[in-house]
Amino acid sequence: MAMRKEVLLAAMMLALVVAAPGGARAACEMGQLTVCMPAITTGAKPSGACCANLRAQQACFCEYAKDPSLGAYIRSPHASETLVSCGLAVPHC
Predict the structure, then answer these.
(1) Using CA atoms, how far apart are residues 83 and 90, in angstroms rounded to an integer?
(2) Is residue 23 part of a domain?
(3) Which residues are in the Bifunctional inhibitor/plant lipid transfer protein/seed storage helical domain (predicted)?
């Protein structure tokens, strides 16, 4: 079941990257967060690469949380735990 969630999340992230409009901010690249999938979906400890990418994407968290296809993942308890583990504040959107 967890593997199915990871595959679904990866597919959604890829679709967002491919379908992003040309006017979208270059800094918001959801695909950079695929390295965080184990932490966000299972609560595993985030890797250094995950934390670095989260820092780079921090300004985009509220935008991602408002996306109907991603919001449940972004607002999940594991996502909040991942942010805290990386030393980042949990946004209040």
Answers:
(1) 6
(2) no
(3) 28-93
Contact 32, 59 (CB under 8 A): no
Rounded distance between C-alpha atoms, residue 48 and residue 42, angstroms? 17
In a domain, 1, yes or no: no
28 close to 57: Cβ distance less than 8 angstroms? yes
Q: pLDDT, tens digit, for every residue of 15-54?
A: 343 334 444 444 799 899 999 999 999 999 999 999 999 9
- Find the domain containing 69 and state its range: 36-92
Q: Global pTM?
A: 0.69
* Assigned domain for 87 exists: yes
Q: Are 17 and 30 in contact (CB under 8 A)?
A: yes
CATH number at 84 reads 1.10.110.10
Per the structure, the count of domains in the chain is 1
For the stretch 47-80, pLDDT in tens is: 999 999 999 999 999 998 899 888 888 889 999 9
The answer to whether residue 13 is domain-embedded is: no
